[in-house]
Specification:
The complex is a heterodimer of chains A (about 900) and B (about 240).
Chain A lengths: L1 E4 L14 H5 L3 E3 L8 E3 L1 E2 L11 E2 L4 H5 L4 H5 L12 E4 L5 E3 L4 E2 L16 E3 H8 L20 E8 L16 H15 L4 E6 L9 H10 L3 E5 L2 E6 L6 E7 L3 E7 L1 E6 L1 E2 L4 H8 L24 E3 L9 H19 L25 E6 L11 H9 L4 E7 L5 H14 L3 E6 L2 H14 L7 E5 L1 H5 L6 H19 L8 E4 L4 E4 L3 H12 L4 E4 L21 H14 L3 E4 L3 E8 L2 E8 L2 E7 L1 E4 L3 E3 L13 E3 H9 L3 H4 L3 E8 L13 H15 L4 E6 L8 H10 L3 E4 L7 E6 L5 E8 L6 E6 L1 E6 L1 E3 L3 H8 L26 E3 L9 H19 L3 E4 L4 E3 L9 H5 L5 E6 L2 E6 L9 H5 L5 E3 L4 H11 L7
Parallel strand pairs in A: 7-18, 9-16, 10-11, 10-16, 11-12, 19-20, 19-21, 21-22, 24-25, 24-30, 25-26, 30-41, 32-39, 33-34, 33-39, 34-35
Antiparallel strand pairs in A: 1-6, 2-3, 4-5, 8-17, 13-14, 14-15, 23-42, 27-28, 28-29, 31-40, 36-37, 37-38, 43-46, 44-45
Helix pairs in contact in A: 4-5, 5-6, 8-21, 9-13, 10-11, 13-24, 14-15, 14-21, 16-18, 18-19
Chain B lengths: L7 H9 L5 E5 L12 H18 L6 E5 L5 H18 L10 H13 L1 H7 L1 H4 L9 H4 L2 H9 L2 E5 L9 H5 L5 E4 L2 E5 L9 H5 L7 E5 L18 H5 L1
Parallel strand pairs in B: 1-2
Antiparallel strand pairs in B: 3-6, 4-5
Helix pairs in contact in B: 1-4
Classes of the chains: A alpha/beta (about 900), B alpha+beta (about 240).
């Protein structure tokens, strides 16, 4: 594969990201990252969290355009500017490719009616997102383009460019806009509690985990209105530049209303150069120009070895993208496992010197950070001051402490001056502490003998106009750091061996897919299933909306699992005990194989979900009332009574989106549409009704919704406070029917539908064993009773407990392709653990001084990781910490009455020494 | 380290050092990246400490806790400027409240000595997750704190009942019990954390440890008079 690397005109290894060049660059041009609302310079860092955090030079540069200027070269003290760079061709040999080109926001300029670019105060949601952001064009202030004033009254228009079959629009649902608009409303209200926010919407599609609660929270905010209406942007008030929009409601008819600002909730389009990408990689696109993916495996493209992740699969939010990113990685791993680790090199450090009996000899390095610190803080004065502090035997200034040569200088000085503690006064430890710790290791010192004084973010950057005070404060910060350094202790980070086997709990599609991917990468997998047969919920599903024959797929999957030499299947399994920690679990299982003690390094929880048994709508009383799953089984069996039915009514949201189960079961709308289409196929004359609250056929499923409507499936909206009623009755011909009464949403009168059968979209509920399994593996549950991932967006297939992973409906209800995305995603994370021989446990964990422990248990109840236990001794119960499970938050330390338990590296002694040093002379006036 | 690591002792130490204000910053509530939600613990420490400050005659406005994310730079700057302004407005610690420096120092030192005791007594409340901001102010009440300090308990070993069995001494987490075989045990009240371990572990057939609230502790037996004659050998066995 040949890649072209564009020139950055910056030597990445030399640039420290100090941004002095940006300050001096004379060229201002519209900031691309901030939607061209504000200006940036020709040389700049793309955005605040860019990786690497270094600048690049844009084509607007005067030198690149006219061979003039070169000011940046003059001001860069590290000689990092290089105008000699040219585009570089790089050839790489790869065994697999992952395409993740993302998406393009819909351009509302394509349709005149949105008046985008014409009316100053019509913005897109992307523009608005930047306006809300603290690194945005106005530092987090929302200002109108017309007069730079805060808008008070803001309208969001949903489905801009989505769910439209008219030219210039897209027929699919963009899947993320309902929730992002709600987020923008919440953040707007945080900024300005008086703001009036109105969302004009079609269906509200809060189908994701916790989204329904989020919707409810938004709706309940004062001054927030949700109005279901199509709208048109009518005119701009010539004086105020306010925007007038027209809309209609069933109660009030057509109305016009003026808003200070209108936000267009634009949809997600495929990347701009998608055809080119597809051509280059030899893959096919679907009807919407997103990637054509495997019907069951959505990370698969039409070309083997080329995978896809993220929104190029189709509109997706962050967790979905993370699933597929990790999942595509796992599938590359299956192809390339034989080459794993071939390109890695191991770092060798010199042996560590034992200096704990020596008196502290502290070295202080004060960084100029180019002009970032040096132009505000008097660095030489800070160095002078540092030398007066107790135990400081050496101090010097550095231009950039993080530059390679400076790091070498630090190691040299440690050796030459016999330093045993080091303080670097520079920037935030968040970014560079790992680098400096490494520097200490290079010099043979324990890395915990390092402390970082932040005199940039905490000082020079915020006090740039008060130079003298800033210098005083920098000295204070250094004094605190030095005081702490004197108390630092060497800590050991220890390597724990990793058992290379995995345990997968639950052998549905999620568990089996995950198990196969792990086993295909050379690891033994113990797969547990509570039932006698594998397959889980999928055994009751026969086809998907996209047309996959689920039973054939499942049969194939089960065969692969049984035939895999590395997968050990345990049916009729129950877990009787689980102990251990990351890399070293021991789980006891009773199954048809008898009682087995399984040792494994990782565990995946894939126990699926159950279906709610409705107590509503005569379910269980009248055998003509079914759940969606019952209906699907009868459709698959072509049951005569069903096929010949004259009329069938489906009722959505049975048992969820209500107080006791306040979430959307996500899959029911698609299931109902799927079944309705099948019924119409079997018997085109059948009257099929779907009674719904919001139809949530997000993404490409919207096409099937439209198809169903085209095939005259009747969709009738009902309100939660006025649910449909079902009773057994006889129709005019004396035929026994189920009479469904529902309020007509437009006319307000009662509609009576005589149905031969009723299908209920029964809620998906957490599996019965959820709480028990959570207890065994010490993982937590969400408010709705599903398993709670470590981080809803960033770590959606892991638990807070290391070494335990999650996939499938146990996490939240999801469709089959989504389950497969997440199952591979979990396999990818499992492999990052199992492919290593050891895991490193941090040294900054808690420890107990047993003599001081009174056995009160306050620490145990404070620890959510289950890292502390009682040990019975002759002197009573004593707390003992398992350092592997401890995450170093230190809550136990703050709760402990006697000071028996303490968080290493943040001990009371260390913290109090800083507090004392902060006070300077320390007097009460 | 989490904001929940902030100890009551840390805050009081800052005031003991003459700091005019203390600010604690934590992550946004309910947005914990881990499973701990330790910022609620920090909140409880602040709510408790503010009532203690009132009890000491200090203005509780000198202590503040705010929750924000790393992306809230502007908000952080605003909050800090506001707090800085407020503390300046309040004036120097103690002086502004009409407290003499020595008096304040000794009051603070007294409370710091009681921190272990406060943690024992308020253990459950300190770990509570207080979701409703309207409940913040009354979570700990002034009366509750006044009573806490009024009814501070002490532990005392009754020399007539002590059998010098060493149990309490071995179990005392603060090594505050002066003990030897055949010698009546004595609690060193200066070292004692008031955790109640001795009270809990003294064999019930002796019942020698007494919990005393609201009255002074009897003086210990002089060192020369602590020997138990006769039955100690048998008892200790």
């Amino acid at each position: 594969m040949t890649l072209v690397k564009k020139p950055r005109y910056i030597v990445e290894s030399k640039c420290t990201g100090c941004t002095t060049c940006v300050e001096y660059c004379p060229v201002k041009y519209p900031d691309q990252f901030n939607q061209e609302i504000s200006m940036n310079k020709a040389v700049h860092i793309y955005f605040a969290q860019a990786i690497p955090l270094v600048t690049y030079i844009d084509e607007s540069c005067l030198y690149l355009k006219e061979k003039k200027c070169r000011i940046c070269e003059g001001v860069c003290k590290n000689n990092a500017i290089d105008f000699g760079q040219a585009a570089e061709k790089v050839e790489v040999n790869v065994g697999a490719v992952i395409l993740s080109p993302g998406l393009e926001p819909y351009d509302p300029g394509l349709r005149e009616e949105y008046r985008y670019g014409e009316f100053a105060n019509v913005v897109t949601s992307m523009d608005y997102e930047r306006l809300l952001c603290s690194t945005g064009p106005y530092q987090g202030e929302v200002l109108r383009a017309s007069d730079r004033k805060h808008p008070r009254k803001i309208a969001w228009l949903q489905c801009v460019g989505s769910r439209q079959v008219t030219p210039g629009g897209k027929s699919y649902c963009s899947a993320v806009c309902c929730t992002y608009a709600q987020k923008q409303v919440i953040v707007t209200k945080d900024h300005d509690s008086e703001a009036e926010c109105t969302i004009f919407h079609n269906d509200i599609r809060s189908y994701g985990k916790d989204f329904e609660r989020f919707y409810e929270r938004t709706e309940k905010l004062p001054g927030v209105r949700f109005i279901r209406s199509y709208v048109s942007i009518v005119r701009e008030n010539p004086d105020t530049k306010n925007v007038v929009i027209r809309y209609a409601t069933t109660d009030d008819g057509v109305k016009e209303e003026e808003f200070d600002m209108v936000v267009l909730s634009v949809g997600l389009n495929p990347p701009a150069d998608v055809k080119d990408t597809a051509g280059k990689f030899g893959i096919e696109l679907n009807a919407h120009d997103f990637c054509r993916v495997g019907p069951a495996n959505p990370m698969e493209t039409t070309r083997p070895g080329v995978f896809v992740s993220g929104a190029f699969q189709g509109p997706a939010d962050i967790p979905e993208s993370v699933f597929s990113a990790s999942g595509a990685g796992a599938q590359c791993g299956e192809l390339l496992d034989h080459r794993r680790g071939k390109l890695t090199r191991e770092r060798i450090y010199p042996p560590e010197k034992d200096v704990c009996r020596e008196e502290p000899r502290i070295g202080v390095f004060v960084c100029h950070c180019g002009a970032n610190i040096g132009s505000v803080v008097n660095v030489p004065a800070a160095v002078e001051y540092a030398l007066t502090l107790p135990d400081v035997v050496y101090a010097q200034e550095q231009l950039f402490s993080c530059a390679t040569n400076s790091a070498r200088e630090i190691t040299d000085m440690i050796r030459e001056k016999g330093l045993n503690r080091v303080v670097v006064a520079a920037c935030s430890p968040r970014t560079l502490e790992p680098l400096f710790r490494d520097t200490l290791r290079e010099a043979g010192l324990n890395q915990y003998y390092y402390d970082m004084a932040n005199i940039r973010e905490h000082c020079s950057w915020v006090h740039s106009k008060e130079k003298e005070e800033a210098t005083v404060k920098a000295k204070d910060i250094i004094r605190m750091s030095v005081a702490r350094a004197g108390h630092l202790e060497p800590l050991a980070e220890f390597d724990l061996p990793v058992n290379k086997a995995a345990l997968v709990v639950g052998a549905g599609v999620a568990g089996m897919t995950c198990a196969l991917s792990i086993a295909n990468q050379g690891h033994e997998v113990h797969l547990l299933e509570k039932d006698a047969d594998l397959g889980g919920m999928a055994r009751r599903i026969h086809y998907t909306l996209e047309g996959v024959d689920v039973q054939a797929y499942l049969g194939d999957l089960i065969r692969k699992v049984y035939r895999h030499p590395l997968i050990h299947v345990y049916t009729g399994a129950a877990i009787t005990g689980a102990a251990g920690y990351v890399g070293n679990f021991v789980t006891t299982v009773r199954s048809e194989r008898g009682v087995t003690e399984i040792k494994h390094g990782a565990a995946v929880i894939a126990i699926g979900a159950d279906v709610y048994t409705p107590g509503e709508y005569l379910y269980g009383e009248d055998d003509r009332v079914l759940t969606n799953l019952d209906l699907e089984e009868r459709i698959a069996g072509r049951e005569e009574r069903l096929v010949n039915a004259r009329s069938l009514v489906m009722i959505q949201c049975v048992g969820c989106r209500q107080e006791d189960r306040n979430y959307c079961s996500r899959v029911c709308c698609g299931e109902s549409v799927k079944n309705a289409l099948k019924l119409k196929e079997l018997n085109p004359d059948m009257d099929v009704y779907i009674l719904f609250r919001d139809i949530r056929t997000y993404g490409f499923k919207e096409d099937y919704y439209r198809e169903a409507a085209d095939r005259e499936v009747r969709f009738i909206r009902y309100q939660p406070e006025d649910k449909p009623r079902v009773e057994a009755a006889g129709d005019d011909d004396g035929r026994s029917v189920l009479r469904v009464t529902v309020t007509d949403p437009v006319l307000g009168n009662k509609l009576e539908i005589d149905a031969d059968m009723i299908a209920l979209a029964a809620a998906v509920v957490p599996a019965a064993a959820t709480a028990e399994v959570a207890g065994l593996f010490k993982v937590t549950l969400s408010p709705d009773g599903f398993f709670k991932e470590a981080h809803v967006k960033l770590r959606p297939v892991e638990f807070g407990t290391d070494g335990v992973y999650l996939c499938g409906a146990a996490h939240y209800p999801k469709y089959l392709p989504e389950t497969i995305n997440q199952a591979y995603g979990a396999a990818g994370r499992v492999l990052t653990l199992l492919s290593r021989d050891t895991v490193v446990a941090s040294g900054s964990v808690c420890g107990v001084d047993e003599k001081k422990c009174m056995g009160c248990g306050a620490c145990i109840s404070a620890c959510t990781y289950g890292a502390i236990e009682f040990r019975e001794t002759r002197r009573g119960s004593k707390a003992v910490v398992n350092p592997v499970l401890c995450k170093g938050d230190g809550l136990c330390n703050a709760r402990c009455p006697t000071g028996a338990i303490s968080l290493k590296h943040f001990t009371d002694e260390e913290i109090l020494s800083e507090i004392d040093a902060a006070a300077g002379e320390g007097i009460i006036h | 380290m989490c904001s929940g690591r902030v100890d009551l002792k840390h805050v009081l130490r800052a005031f003991e050092n003459g700091m005019d204000g203390v600010f604690i910053g934590g992550c946004r509530l309910n947005e914990c990246n881990y499973t701990t939600h330790g910022n609620y613990h920090a909140l409880n420490v602040v709510l408790l400490c503010r009532k203690i400050m009132e009890h000491l005659g200090l203005n509780p406005e000198r202590l503040s806790v705010e929750f924000m994310s790393a992306g809230d730079g502007i908000l952080f700057a605003e909050v800090m400027s506001e707090f800085g302004k407020k503390v300046k407005g309040l004036g120097p610690l103690g002086k502004a409240e009409g407290l003499d420096g020595d008096e304040l120092r000794s009051r603070l030192a007294g409370v710091i000595r009681l921190v272990p005791y406060i943690k024992v007594v308020k253990q459950e409340k300190l770990a509570f997750r207080l979701e409703n901001p309207e409940a913040y102010d009354d979570f700990f009440t002034g009366d509750e704190i006044d009573r806490l300090f009024r009814e501070v308990v002490s532990y005392y070993i009754d020399p007539l009942k002590c059998q010098a069995c060493m149990t309490c001494a071995r179990r005392c987490p603060a090594e505050a019990i002066i003990s030897a075989r055949n010698q009546v045990h004595v609690i060193d009240q200066d070292k004692c954390l008031k955790c109640g371990t001795c009270f809990a572990v003294c064999p019930s057939r002796f019942g020698a440890v007494r919990k005393i609230a609201g009255e002074s502790v009897p003086p210990p037996l002089p060192e020369g008079e602590r020997t138990i004659v006769g039955k100690s050998d048998k008892e200790v066995g």
